[in-house]
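Entry 0007
Protein: NADH dehydrogenase
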Amino acid sequence: MSLMSVLTDIFTWWNGATVGTRFALSRGGEFVGEDEFGNRYYRLKNDPEKNAAFGTERRWVVYSGYAEASAIPTGWHGWMHHTVDTPPVDESYAPRSWQKPHRANGTGTAQAYRPKGSALSPERRRPAATGDYEAWTPGA
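Output (structure tokens):
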């Protein structure tokens, strides 16, 4: 392991599991499953005393690469947010037809949404004025 990867693990939280997360998982984490993106899901081992301190079962995700919460598939999202108690690996979960696959957030990139008339849109022109505007004049 290089010095750079050690420093990255210590000081960044957006590139996978930090040293603190690894320590917590080694002490009380139970591997639950992995999704199609390589994200790994964990929960606190069955310890009613520790789970009572949180008020509910503690659950984690260790992202594969850059940490982006919207990259969690719908089935795992439900489990992570305690909407369902059974993780997708323990049941035959199939996304509904209206559930779309993950698409990265393009804000701040060239792929960002730019509506018609925006200064940054490819058209760069606002629609021509229609000529129906009359300026207000005081006392008129």
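Curator remark: The mean pLDDT is 78. The longest strand covers residues 29-34.
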